[in-house]
Please model this.
Amino acid sequence: MTTPRWLLCSHKHQTTTPRPNNTPPTIEPPQHARTNHSNPLFTMASLTKLNADSHLLLEQPLLRFPHDLSRRNFKTAQRYLENGTKELTTTLAKATKAASKSASPAASLESLDAMIQKMQGMKRKLEGLHEEELRIHKSSKARLQYLQDLYDVQSLDDVKYEDWSQKRLVRLLVDYLLREGYVESATQLAESKGVNDLVDVEAFVACHRIERSLREGKRTAEALKWCMENGQGLKRLGGMLEFELRLQQYIEMVRQGHEAGIGDGVNGLGDGGMSLGSGNGASRLVEARLYAKKYLSASDDFELVGRAAGLLAYRPWDGVEPYASLYSTDRWNHLAEMFLDTHHTLFSLPVRPLLHIALSAGLSALKTPSCHSTSSVPIPITSSSTPICPICSTELKELARNVPYAHHTKSIVESDLMMLPNGNVCGSDELRVFNEKVGTVAGWVRDPLGGRSGEAWKEAAVQKVYIL
Amino acid sequence: MDELREQIELLQGSANLATSIDDVQKTIELLTAARAKIETEPHKAPITLATLQSPVKASLEVAQKDLKPAYFGLNKYGKALDKKFKDKPLPTAENDALSSHPHLINRAIAMHLLREGQFSVASTFIDEANRNPPHPEPTPGTPNPYLNDSWEKDLAKDALDSKKLQQHFGAMYHILHELRQQRNLRPAIEWARERSDVLEARGSNLEFELCRLQFVCLFVGQDENGHMTESAEGPFRAWAYARSEFGPFQIRYAKEVQQLMGSMAYWQNIVDSPYRQYFYNESAWEEVALSFTREFCSLLGLSADSPLYIATTAGAIALPTLLKLQNIMKEKRTEWTTQNELPVEIPLPPSYHFHSIFVCPVSKEQATDTNPPMMMPCGHVIAKESLDRLSKGARFKCPYCPNESHPRDARTVFL
Ligand SMILES: [Zn+2]
Ligand SMILES: [Zn+2]
Model:
């Protein structure tokens, strides 16, 4: 390890440091961390070993989402079939009764035709769901195969791992784009990389249609329909989405009532003293009150229900709290967020995009104090031998500014470092190769950073650096 | 994995809606048969309908019963998933340091797509992102993301609006296409020649490597556009090429040029000559392509591999350690994302190290701008703060050898 290479004369340890004979040497051999990770916890083999199981941390939604979708698909089928059965048996019983009573055979034929049509309609619906079911299973199978591929790779250095990880990045990107509502680019990227089975474009498109209907369309109908379709799951979750949607529906009815009331001319009774008179606005308010009774009164949030009731007395333009905030259009953004949250929780999707999670961890694992250093020499731009660090690269530099840098317990430096008289440090091999190449006179050295015409020093002025 | 696959195959094969659909079809047939009967024997309508009731009911009950395999199959698959992901919770928002910087994320993605040559996806994305700008969300480290929002937006706009990057990468892919598919070196050589000075300052051999490959191609009988010619003329063309083009390389690559010229002696039978390796090297094209990509990106200040790829991959490797850590830190009410330095070491493969790292052997702290590594006259290096502590401004003994020195003799090491 301590074998001096070509610059033996500058090896000051042996030439200038006298060592007392009776004490054991305290000099440890220098560590060459680049080739020798001396931390016993991390041997080279353990550093590159691929643990497929722990890699699954990012892959759970990949399998969960289609499973949840196929469960919902199944429940829809079950509901159709149950309702269809009930309906058919009642209609058939009615038709039988009617026939026995005197109805003409023509009437019997007619009701049979209706029944056949109903059944055919149900069959078509079930066939649609069956197709969807098979599509989901096919994609689940493709996903399992994709994960299986990972189990077949042993090392992080394997080019197969790189292929796999490239595909994962595409998936994470498509997932991110879909979450942000960038559907066009998500679809294009998935298609161009052939990962359609590994991403959930349709499901996210449906999700965003509903989100936009709230945020931009200011409509509750689509979201409420979604709540109906996912009733069981939502009940298990116990969220407030449906209640909040109903509340909004009520708020809008009250708002319309008050606005129509201006036209009716019965609405000017002063602060808080509005009575429900006659007219268009008034009847809308009555409707709203009935709606609240039906959908809101069951809530045990008495404070909120009380506030909701108060809306009947306070008009949107009165600006009286706590009612004004219920009238605020900000509530639509709140509902949109709430819907997304509920949707993602229901389908086991992480709250934040997995791309963020993976990147956050990766930025920190790669970041070093040098990446945002203001004092160190700008080596990355000038030297061809060092690849540019991904954190220092324009793409990630600002993004990584506020994340913690990686922790190291051992130095990682090139082996056999030499310090030149100008203070620059350089590996002895690199120094030798450079000086041979530029034809420096024997016994002299030039700094690779200084180029061919840089200053030359005597070899003796170059000093070995010991990094423990 | 096998268990999950078996379950899915079962769901695909039989445990699905197909049987129930058949049952519904049978019900439809029952109804149709009854209809036909009433048509031919109208007077028997009441009895036909009455006897229809229980078969129809039974048939639909069967349809419902036949849903069971699908129901159980889905449940079983769900349980198998639970088992597979036991102890692997979904990463929570505490592990997200980036939602507060959505514009920078979008910028990184746009640049990634461009560098991968996905130009049309990139332009669609940039379009969509401009139409619907992302909303920042608070993160543990940046609870008030709106404060920086407009600054980040401006920074990101540069990358998002600029067609420059696309032009750059368009040029890069054109040259790479010519290299890899057309075996045409000319565009690459022209590119390198225009940047000869910068490349040389970086210590890059690209231009010479390209010209050497051109020489080899000519030698074995291709013309300068990559087309095969009368092979006997090859060595002469190569020789002419060397005479006109190798001048600038004479000093820096004297040895290599000499070798190439030496090969001329074997022009009739290069295969058996000592120079065979230069002439029949299958990977030479891929090597110059990679070396070209690296230099091209470096001159733009970009790393050769996509930083987004390297960072997400490193992140996936780091995540198990960080999530384990998170459970410990939760008790102390801190998040790893808000620290200055990660509290644990992440075991990354050596290919993920890009900077030299100096850890002071005395304090075990990493060197920073304010605490740089210092070399004592004996050659041992410790961090500046350790040096100050040990020396207290006066002569002191190196902790690793008997050498004594004054702190003012220590020199900052730029790693
Ligand atoms: Zn860096
Ligand atoms: Zn020492």
Q: What stands out?
A: The two ends of chain A are 13 Å apart (CA to CA). Residues 61-152 of chain A form one domain. Residues 131 and 192 of chain A are 25 Å apart (CA to CA).
